[in-house]
From TrEMBL:
Transmembrane segments: 148-166, 348-370, 390-416, 935-956, 968-988, 1018-1037, 1057-1075, 1082-1102, 1130-1151
Keyword vocabulary terms for this entry: ATP-binding, Magnesium, Membrane, Metal-binding, Nucleotide-binding, Translocase, Transmembrane, Transmembrane helix
Biased composition (Pro residues): 1241-1250
Compartment(s): Membrane
Protein name per its UniProtKB record: Phospholipid-transporting ATPase
Domain P-type ATPase N-terminal: 89-154
Membrane topology: Multi-pass membrane protein
Keyword Nucleotide-binding: yes
Family membership noted in the UniProt record: Belongs to the cation transport ATPase (P-type) (TC 3.A.3) family. Type IV subfamily.
Organism: Acinonyx jubatus (Cheetah)
Cofactor(s) named in the record: Mg(2+)
Amino acid sequence: MLPEPASPATPTGLDLWGQQRATPHQGWQGPAAGPKGQLTHTERKWLGGCVQEVKAMPLGVSHGIAGTLLGEMALCAKKRPPEEERRARANDREYNEKFQYASNCIKTSKYNILTFLPVNLFEQFQEVANTYFLFLLILQLIPQVSSLSWFTTIVPLVLVLAITAVKDATDDYFRHKSDNQVNNRQSQVLIDGSLQQEQWMNVRVGDIIKLENNQFVAADLLLLSSSEPHGLCYIETAELDGETNMKVRQAIPVTSELGDISRLAKFDGEVVCEPPNNKLDKFSGALYWKESKFPLSNQNMLLRGCVLRNTEWCFGLVVFAGPDTKLMQNSGRTKFKRTSIDRLMNTLVLWIFGFLVCMGVILAIGNAIWEHEVGTRFQVYLPWDEAVDSAFFSGFLSFWSYIIILNTVVPISLYVSVEVIRLGHSYFINWDRKMFCMKKQTPAEARTTTLNEELGQVEYVFSDKTGTLTQNVMVFHKCSVRGRSYGDVFDVLGHKAELGERPQPVDFSFNPLADKKFLFWDPTLLEAVKMGDPHTHEFFRLLSLCHTVMSEEKNEGELYYKAQSPDEGALVTAARNFGFVFRSRTPKTITVHEMGTAVTYQLLAILDFNNIRKRMSVIVRNPEGRIRLYCKGADTILLDRLHPSTQELLNTTTDHLNDLDEEYYEEWAQRRLQASLAQDSREDRLASVYEEVESDMMGPLWDLQLLGATAIEDRLQQGVPETIALLTLANIKIWVLTGDKQETAVNIGYSCKMLTDDVTEVFVVTGHTVLEVREELRKAREKMMDSPHTVGNGFTCQEKRPSSKLTSVLEAVAGEYALVINGHSLAHALEADMELEFLETACACKAVICCRVTPLQKAQVVELVKKHKKAVTLAIGDGANDVSMIKTAHIGVGISGQEGIQAVLASDYSFSQFKFLQRLLLVHGRWSYLRMCKFLCYFFYKNFAFTMVHFWFGFFCGFSAQTVYDQYFITLYNIVYTSLPVLAMGVFDQDVPEQRSMEYPKLYEPGQLNLLFNKREFFICIAQGIYASVLVFFLPYGVFAEAARDDGAQLADYQSFAVTVATSLVIVVSVQIGLDTGYWTAINHFFIWGSLAVYFAILFAMHSDGLFRMFPNQFRFVGNAQSSLAQPTVWLTIALTTVVCILPVVAFRFLKLSLKPDLSDTVRYSQLVRKKRAQHRCTRRPGRTSSRRSGYAFAHQEGFGELIMSGKNMRLSSLGLAGFATRSGSGWIESLRRKRSDSPGSPPDKPLKG
C-alpha cells in the first residue's frame, strides 16, 4: 500500500507542475524490462527539436557550469558496460560502489603533458595530406632516391604540424583550466551524520548534498526537501537550456519533511531509474522506501547546470554524477559540415596527385630510355650507384625521385592557409558593428569557421516565424466571448478606426494590481466585466487559472510573472488587468483576486502542454466545492473535441469549462495515479489518461460551455520586409516553416512582403488524404503550366507545355505564384511517392509557407531540398523546435531571442535580429566566397608555375632528377616568398564596397551558380601556371645558351641559371597577385613588396661569404647571386619573362571588360565614373563652358529603354535598392541559369560552354 500523501484523494504535486513542455515517449522500461526501448515516432520528433548538442567552445567560457561544456567529453572513470538501470541508495557508498558508477569528476581536456605530443601527432597524421608528406620525408632519407635534402620537406611539414599543435594545445589549456575550476568547487555533503565540505570531484552517487541560494547544482539530484513549503524550490536553467525564467521543482511529499540533518542521516531510500541519457526534459524512476514505492518524474530532479534561486536551502540525493549527468551527456560534438568547395578541393587534390604520378611515370620512362641509349656509354664518367644494375631499375628509382621533387603540386600549406583565411572571415563577422544589437548588447557570432564561403552560395532560406520574423513579444489584441468580438474600435459612423485615429486606451486605474504596460483599446470589454457579465467573468477566470505561470511579488502590489512562453504571459496579464489577478500558487492551490476579492481554488491536476497535445488543462475545485476542468489550446485541436453545435468560434485560442462529476473524477484520478506509477512507458500512459478526460468533454456526462477565443498579436521585427525583398532580388528563395495556423502565417507572409499583389495566385493545399493532396498539387502545376506568359513587347500567349519538360517549365515560371500547405497535408506530401511532386510545385513558386508543422517536418522539408535540388540551404530560427531544422541545413543560423539559446547553441552563426541575415549573406558571405575562390585559383597557379619548371628541366638533364632551383628556395617558396601575399588577398580582398553589395543584390548570383571556382576554372588556373612555367624556364634557357657576361665569359652556368629562373618566377607571381588583388590595403602592399624584398635579402645572404665560412658544405656558390644579378642581360631576361607571362593575362582581362563585363565590373565602373564626376564638379572653374563633345555613343547601351518601361530597374521606395544594368554580364548569368534548370541533374561545377 502507498502512504497516505499519495492517495487519490490527496494528490501529490509530482506532476501538477507543468514547467517543462514534455512530449510522451517510450523511455525507460523498468528494472525488469531490459535495455531502453527503441525511440518512438513521437520521441524522434521531440528529440529532433529539443535536444541540442552543445558545441565545444574553449574560449570565452562564462561563469558557472558552462565550463563543463568544453571540448570532447572524456570520462574520469574506467569504461563501463552500458547500464540497463540506475540504482542508488542514500547514505550507502559501499553499496553504490559495487556498480562502479562514475565519480563527479569531469574531464573535457584531451591531453596531458605526457600524452600531448604522441596523441596530437597521431591525430594530425590521420589527415591524408600529412601522411603523404611524411611518406615523402621517408623517401628523402634514402640516398639512392632523393636528390633533395630532407629539410626541404620537413621544414614545411613541421611548420604545419606546429601551427596546428599550438592551436590544439591552447584550446586544451583552457579546457584544463575550466575542468580544474569546476572540479574544485566546494559542496556540502552529508557524511557520517554531519555536513562536510567536499570538492565536487569527490561527490559520489548516493550522497546527500545541501545547496544554498544562488549556488550551482553539483550533480543530477533527486530533490528531497527544501526551506520552502511543500518541498518547493526555484531554479534557473539558463546554463542548461538558455531559458532565464525561473522554474519550479518539488520534492515528493514523503521526503519533503526531511529538513533536519539527523533525519536525513537515517534516510536509506533507494532510487531505481533509467540509465544515463541526454533527455533534458525526461526522467522516469521510482523511490523505494519503507516498503513503499513512489513515482519520480523530471519535476523532482535538479540537474547539474541549474542555479538555486529564491530558496534558502535544499537537500538532494545524487543520482547521476560527472559524465553521467544530462548536461555532460549533451556535450557531444555536432555533425561536422563541409562546404562544396571543401569537397571539390579534395577531389582536385586527388586529381593533382594523379597528375603527379603521371609526370613521374613519364620522367621515369625517359630516364630508363636515356640510361639505356646514352648513359651506358658513359659509365666511366657517370657511373651508376652500386644498387643500380639496369636502366629499368634506374628509371624505377628516378620515379620516386621525381615524386619527391614534384610534390609541391600537392601543396602541404593549402589546408592550413584555408583555415587561416576562414578564421579571418569569422573575426570580421564577429567584429561587424552593423550586426551588433544595441538593445540587447548582442554581437553577431560565427560559431564555426568552416562554412564562411558557403554563405555566399545560399539558394534556399528556411525560416521559422515566431521570434524569427516576429518579435515574439505577444500582445493581447482581441478576444471573442460567447460570440461577441472585442478589440476593434469604431467611430461615430460605425467605421473601424485605424491605430492612429483611435482614442485613448482603456483606463485600468480601478485595478491597483494592473500592469501599466498593458494597452487595450476597446472599452466595451471592461464595461462587460464591470457590469458582472457571467460569461466574461468565466472567460477571464479561465485565463487566470489555466496556466503554469509563476508569480513573484517583490514589493506590495508589484507583481512579476515568469511564463514559459510569451503568449501564456500575455493571456495571464490580460486577465490581470481586467480584474482577475493571478496572485500566487502552491502545489495544491491557486489564489486569484477576482474584482478585488481573493479566491483560492484547490488545484487537483495539471494536464500540461506539449507539442503533440497542443493544449493544456487544469482541474480545480472552486470554493463552492464544484470540480471544473478548464482547457485552452490551439483551435484545430480543441474544436475537434467539442460538440458540433458549439464550433462557432475559429480564432487563435479556444477556451471552455466543464463541471466534472465527483465520482467520475475519483475514478479518473485513480487511473492517473496508476499511470504515474507505471515503470513502462509512463509518459504514454499519462497522455492516454489526459486524452480520456479531455475527450469526454464532448460526451453527455456534463454540460459544456464554449467560452471564447483570444487573438494574440506578434509584431514583425524591424527590417524584415526589406530583408526578404532584398534576398528575393538576390534569387534566394525563402520558405517559412511555422507551427502557427494558416491564416496567421498568410497574414505574416503579406506583412513581410513574401506575398504581394504581384503574385498571380496563392495555392492553398489543405487535403486530408493522399489523393486530395496529390490532386491539389496537380491542379497547381497545371495552372502554372497553362498560364499566359509574356513573349515580348507586352504581348502574351497561351501555351500548353509537354509534361516531359515539367521541371524546366516550372522553373521558368517561378516568381508569380505562392504555395501554402498545412501540416497534415505536408505529412502526405513528404511521403516517398509524392515528395518529388511537392518539391517541383514548391520550387516553382516565389514563396512557400508551411503551417502547423512539427519540428520533424521542418527537418524533412530541408532535407528534401538538400537531397534533390543540390542547392545550398540555410535554416534560421530562435527556439528549441527549430534545432532539428538548423542542424539539417547546410548552414544553421540561430537568433538569440525570447525562447532561450537552444537554437544558438546548435547553430553555425548567430545574431539577434532577422534583418542581419542580409548583411551576413550579401556582404560577408559573398566576400568570403569571392576571396576563397581567388585564393584557390592563385594558389594552384603559383604552385604549378613553380613545380612544372622541374618537369621541363628533366628533358635537358638526362632525366636525372636534378632540380633547377636551389634547395633552400624550394623550402622557402611556399612558406615565405609567396604565402603572405595570397593570405592577404584571401582575407582582405573585395570586388565592390559593402554598400554596392547591398545595393546590387544580383552580385550574389555567381556564388549560387558556382562560377568563380569550379573544375573549369581550376583547369584554366592550371593552364596559366603551366604556361608561366614554360616561359620562366625556356626564355632564360634560350638566352643563356648564347649570352655572355660583360667580360666576354660564358654566362651560362647552372647556379646563375637557377638564380635567374627563381627571380623571374618570384617577380612573375608577385605581379600576378597584384593584378588579382581588387582591394589594396597597406597590408597587401607590405606583404607583396615585402615578400619580394625578403626574397632578395635571403638570396644575397645565402650567397654571402659569411655563410660560406660557417657552412662551407651547404653554401658553396659564394657571390653567385651578386655576380649574376649585376649583369644587364639577366635583368633584361627577367623583365622579358615577366612581360611575356603577364601580357596575355592583361590583354584577356581588358578584352573581357570591354566585350563581356560581369555585373561587378559594371558596378566598379559606375562607381569610378561617379567618383570622377564628383571630383570634376569640385574642381571645375565657375563660368567655364563645358565642351559640347558628347560621350553618348560610348557610354550608352542598348536595352535601357525597355528596362525602364518594364520597371525592373526602379528602386524600391522603402529599400533604396538600385536596379542593375542588364548588360551582357547579367545576360550570360541568366542564360547559364536557364541551362542549369534544363539539366537539373548536372553538377554545379560542370565546365560550361558559351
